Amino acid sequence: MKVLITGISGRVGANLAVQLMKKGYETRGVIFPGDPKTEKVQKLGIEVFEADMQDAEGIYRACDGCDAIVHLAAQMKQGNSTVQRMFEINALGTLNVLEGAVRSSRKVQSILMAGTDQAYHPFLSDRSITLYEDHPQRPIDIYALTKLMSEQMFYTYQREFNLPIKIMRFGSVIAGDEPLELFYPAWLDAYVNQDWTLPGRVPWFGADKVEAAKAAVAEALKTPNGVCAITDEEGNSWGLPFTDVRDTVDGIIRVLESKDAVGQAFNLVGPAATPFVTVAKLIAANTDRPYLEVKMPFLWWFNVSNAKARSILGYQPKYTYEDMLQSALAMRRGEDIGVVPV
Q: Edge-to-edge strand order for the sheet containing 47-50?
């Protein structure tokens, strides 16, 4: 079986390609022209197509002759990327992949796409809420909106062309030594002073808390290499579900190989939400970064259920954050942890 992976140079795509080849799949990848990670992909020994996701003809050629397509390519909020570019890559790119599947000279057996838990509007302060696949999707930023649009395109092409579509919703996927590199004050600064409080934007946590939040960030920035143990004013830890790339890849392959996954959406996330305080303690104990308590005027905590994937696919995410951190340390020692570096 020949499988096309868009976004193959990313943390998920490259690791998926390796595991698919181990299972005997013939693998093809799409990278955009000038991708700085091109050499990494070429070393995998797979067939590579260069095409921008908005290049319809280029994507059609990449899709042609493939038995399955795993659409991972996406533009997230990075650097100077514009909302227009995000729309072109995420929404128009998805349309081109779907058209490529329809036009292919070989009947596509499965076509998968990577959605996001952000489409649920996971910016929550209620620790009792768990997000299931049928939770209303109400994105509050352009990235999540383009992902939701892509999901709807997939469902439309299933209805119109009977495409065997399968949808995966990822959370915060981390790989390699990334578990050691989280929660710098600059990360919190980017959220509070940029993403969440852009001019004219409605802060999800309440406009009345903006100044106190900015003050807390300013204080944290005085220790630039600190690892932020973030809580609300009552000491409740922030938290969200982190997912090891090895669990993500295992989940994707299960979706790919399951006939019961057709027409379904699955949350492919880690075992459970992890408190930021727990993460901060682990990182501080295993690096030279100082532990830094940061009290914010609001709580950010959400959990995403993987029960459906467990029940239908047999998905069993096994890597806790401590497991990820130990793997990261092993990688820095030069040991092979079975992960393609980011």
A: 47-50, 26-31, 2-6, 68-71, 110-116, 165-170, 265-268
Q: Structure pTM?
A: 0.96
**pLDDT digit string (tens) for the chain, length 342 residues:** 999 999 999 999 999 999 999 999 999 999 999 999 998 898 899 999 999 999 999 999 999 999 999 999 999 876 667 889 999 999 999 999 999 999 999 999 999 999 999 999 888 887 888 999 999 999 989 999 999 999 999 999 999 999 999 999 999 999 999 999 999 999 999 999 988 998 888 999 999 999 999 999 999 999 999 999 999 999 999 999 999 999 999 999 999 999 999 999 999 999 999 999 999 999 999 999 999 999 999 999 999 999 999 999 999 999 999 999 999 999 999 999 999 988
Does the CA dihedral 149-188-332-40 come out positive or negative? Answer: positive
Helix (H, G, I), strand (E, B) or coil at 267: strand
Q: Which long-range contacts (C-beta less than 8 Å, at least 24 apart) are formed by 46-52?
A: 46/8, 46/17, 46/21, 48/8
Give the H/E segment covering residue 230. strand 227-231
Strand order in the sheet with 239-244: 172-174, 239-244, 273-275
Q: SS3 of 244, please?
A: strand
- What CATH number does the domain located at 2-174+242-270+303-317 have? 3.40.50.720
Bridge partners for 165 per DSSP? 111
| CA-derived radius of gyration, the chain | 20
SS3 76: coil
